[in-house]
């Protein structure tokens, strides 16, 4: 049974389109409290939403044990908003962290006057501390790069097929 080259090309483009739509961006973050012992850094995984904002779907970092779902801690929405450097709103993003013997739930947010971290430990001790928050995007492949790679693979497959059938 022979498959049409057009059919195999369409299948490859479909796979590339699915990979591009499932693409998530990563952002490196660092936060250091100007009072108190809080400091943290790591990587946020976020997906672009239809409104142009990014929804944070994952977090990794020193002492970080997990992302808290939107709306489950201190009004968090886990959104980043695009600007010259992506920024947070007043709801911020929340995660759990272990700092020494203490376990904290942390919400980092921007109230318009600056960045803050709201901390709540297992003993229900709460504190809001000013933080210096910085966010940098990490390089991620773009869909056009994946399309170029796919067409290169398709070209190699065509050359290999041509050599295979001309030798027999």
TrEMBL record:
Classification via InterPro entries: Ice-binding_C
Protein name as annotated: Ice-binding protein C-terminal domain-containing protein
Domain of life: Bacteria
All copies of domain Ice-binding protein C-terminal, residue ranges: 139-162
Signal peptide, first to last residue: 1-24
Swiss-Prot/TrEMBL keywords: Signal
Pfam families tied to this protein: PEP-CTERM
